[in-house]
Each structure stands twice: as structure tokens, then as C-alpha cells.
Amino acid sequence: MTGPVTVKAGAALRSDGSRITGSLKANGAVEIALCDTRTTGSVTLTGGSKVTLGDPTVACSPNQMVGPVTVNGTLGPTVIAGNRITGPLACADNDPAPVNNGFPNNVTGPKRGQCADL
Predict the structure, then answer these.
(1) Which residue from 82, 87, 27 is spatially nearest to 57, judged by alpha carbons?
(2) 11: Cβ–Cβ under 8 A, 6 or more apart, which residues?
(3) Which pLDDT value is given to residue 44?
(4) Is-above-0.85 flag for pTM?
(5) What are the structural domain ranges in the chain?
(6) Per DSSP, which regions of 23-105 are E strands?
(7) Exposed / middle / buried, residue 28 (Cβ in 10 Å: 0-12, 13-18, 19+)
(8) Rounded to whole angstroms, what are the CA distances from 79 to 1, 86, 98?
């Protein structure tokens, strides 16, 4: 997919083994799941109820993400696990806080907020 890609409130996006070039933005999406996906551009996920960015515990292979990744204000499970992120990773105001399920992310930029220990 060539972006910008926008996922609107109430919608969902699942990407398996894909490539997203350009920004990816979601505001209030029901579910965002990126598995074995390469993103080039910023990834900004705001609100919504479920975010999965890689999670080998549920057969969701980690991603390669080039650009900043921001996850704010989700009100459901958020897993950010095993990904290679070239850029900063920032998370805030998620309930519950994001987890990596034992699969640390390789992040070249700073990790901030709730994602500081992922």
C-alpha cells in the first residue's frame, strides 16, 4: 500500500506480510494489527480498542518499521513485541499500558512514556 493510509473510527486494519509506504494514521479504530509488515513513514495510532504490532505469542510476526511510531489513548490491549523500529517509539495514556509479551523491540530512536521499557 502506498500512503498516506488512514483508518477511520470504528474501522479495522490487519496487515500480514505487507509493505506500507507513507504514513499510517488511525484514530479510534476498533483494531489495528500489523504482522510481518514493513512500514516506511510515521505510524500514529490514537484511541481505539486493540493494537497489535507484532506478537509471536499469537503467530503475529514482528515488523520492520522505518519512522516514528506513536501509540496514544488506546482503551484495550496493546502489544508491541519484537519489532525493529528505526526511529522513536512513544506511548502515552493507554489503558492498559502496552506490553511486549517477553519479546523486546529493537528501537534505534528513543523510547518514551509507556513504551520506555518495551
Answers:
(1) 82
(2) 29, 30
(3) 98
(4) yes
(5) 5-108
(6) 24-27, 31-35, 38-40, 43-46, 51-53, 64-66, 69-72, 78-80, 84-86, 89-92
(7) middle
(8) 23, 18, 5
Alpha carbon distance 86, 73 (integer Å)? 23
According to the model, what pLDDT value does residue 97 have? 98
Q: Name the grid cell of 24.
A: 499510517
Q: How many helices (H) and strands (E) does the chain have?
A: 0, 15
Rounded Cα gap, residues 5 and 40, in angstroms: 12
Closest CA to 69 of 107, 28, 16: 107
Task: Kindly list the distances between the CA atom of residue 88 and the CA atoms of 2, 30, 69, 99, 113, in Å, as whole numbers in the listed order.
Answer: 22, 24, 6, 17, 11
| Cβ neighbourhood burial of 12 (10 Å; 0-12, 13-18, 19+) | middle
pLDDT, one tens digit per residue, over 14-47 is 999 999 999 999 999 999 999 999 999 999 999 9
| pLDDT reading at 3 higher than 90 | no
